Amino acid sequence: MPDPLFPTLVAGAAKEALRFGDHALTYDDLAAVAGGLARELPSGRVAVWATPTVHTSVAVVAALLAGVPAVPLNPKIGERELAHILADSAPALVLAEPGVELPAGLAALPRRDIPLTGESAPLPEEPDAEAPALIVYTSGTTGPPKGVVLPRRALAATLDALEDAWGWTAADILVHALPLFHVHGLILGILGPLRRGGSVRHLGRFSTEGVARELSNGATMLFGVPTMYHRIAGEAGSDSGLADALKQARLLVSGSAALPVHDHQRITAATGQRVVERYGMTETLMNTSVRADGERKPGTVGVPLRGVELRLVGDAGEVVDDVETVGEIQVRGPNLFTEYLNRPDATAAAFDGGWFRTGDMATRDADGYVKIVGRKATDLIKSGGYKIGAGEIENALLEHPGVAEAAVTGEPDDDLGERIVAWIVPSGEPPAAGELADHVAKLLAPHKRPRVVRYLDALPRNDMGKVMKRALGA
């Protein structure tokens, strides 16, 4: 029989597993309630209305115990996207927090409220390692969202590789406030602590006060996205309580998008802590990370995780071995998804032999640390014969005192091929375009300076804090 995905859940323990505000469940509690729900679930897939609550965690664990693929749904989902996901995944029912109003698009689907109490009973037998565990839908930036089928094997491989990279143990208590319909918040942030036999405290909604409270009361790890760490960076210098709490953390981890170097520097200056970045995708789960016991290099996502093979590939399909030369990241390993649901064409197109084409462009330094320069489609700018990554220009712009937020894109130019466009949220009086161009040219190189500067009140971001660059050009 396969090894259990959650050994502590099977063995039983009176130790706290999950805490969401006033709702807390021990491992024994969770085994009883999720085990009971698991025995009631139909075969086939189940949708989970993924509010940031203990109920969502119970529902997903129950589905995993039952061997039934769970389809997490973003509670802010639009009508068209919801209709597409339901038609594509055909769930047998929807699991939801009691009392939560569901949209009209779910009216035809049977509803089962998620309980928080149950009777102890033997848990179902562990499903096969290749059995689908979750179907997580992509953001759909290039068409309708695709259902990424993640097997149990991929979950276990990624979480165990992070145990190795981060020294993650049952003694760790994780705090975060990430949404639970995505890989970062759900798989890493909820299932990760449960696989280790540790604990997670979810804030429900992010606040620096909540982070400080939990890190001052025994929490050892913090997961966040750059928008959260930007807030922390802005407050830690003047808030001694927050800074002292952060100093007590064993590990601060940022993911889902690049953390600007300027924010790295501000957090380190205030707390002495160096934030760890990692890199993953829905299709691959986690690929690389800065190791807890390794050198912390701001602006990099570290080295390949245990079991993950990574290569950079050039435009002509050649493998790039040169230091600091840009190539597309391709990966293979036990962390990869099985397929795109109902899309054999898209699945086949996503692979180069056994290597998954990530669409992310990167360089590697002499120590093997990976530095992502951006998405092939939106962040690699070909200007004047140069390949330029948007990320390094964004980092340079953020070092200017007049810039609060920055995004960089390319747009067609008859002379250059593409010209560099900077989208700026100023921190006060907007700095002149020429001043920003000179600032970048001094820090990087003249050909990397923005040719156009556009000012905004805010950058468009998705639920994970990523800047939606396609919306900038619209």
Question: Could you describe the 3D structure shown?
Answer:
- By secondary structure, the protein is of the alpha/beta class.
- Among the domains are: 7-189, Rossmann fold (3-Layer(aba) Sandwich), CATH 3.40.50.12780; 380-473, 2-Layer Sandwich (GMP Synthetase, Chain A, domain 3), CATH 3.30.300.
- It has helices at 7-11, 27-40, 54-66, 79-89, 152-166, 183-196, 208-215, 226-236, 240-247, 261-271, 344-349, 390-398, 433-443, 469-473, and strands spanning 16-20, 23-26, 46-49, 70-73, 93-96, 111-113, 132-137, 147-151, 173-176, 199-202, 221-224, 251-254, 276-281, 285-289, 303-304, 309-313, 327-332, 339-340, 351-352, 355-364, 370-375, 380-383, 386-389, 403-413, 417-426, 452-455.
- The strands form six sheets. It has a nine-stranded mixed sheet with strand order 2-1-10-9-11-12-13-14-15, sandwiched between helices. Strands 16, 17, 19, 20 and 21 form a five-stranded antiparallel sheet that branches.
- A hairpin with a 2-residue loop joins strand 22 (380-383) and strand 23.
- Helix 8 (226-236) packs across helix 10.
- The longest helix is centred in the middle third of the chain and has 15 residues, at 152-166.
- The termini are far apart.
- 48% of the residues are buried.
- The model has no long low-confidence stretch (mean pLDDT 93).
Ends distance: 53 Å
Widest beta sheet: strand line-up: 2-1-10-9-11-12-13-14-15
Looking at the structure, the CATH topology of the domain at 7-189 is: Rossmann fold
Low-confidence stretches: none
Helix content: 25-40%
Q: Quote the average pLDDT.
A: 93
> Count of helices?
14
Q: What is the overall shape?
A: globular
CATH class of the domain at 7-189: Alpha Beta
Instruction: Count all strands and give the number.
Output: 26
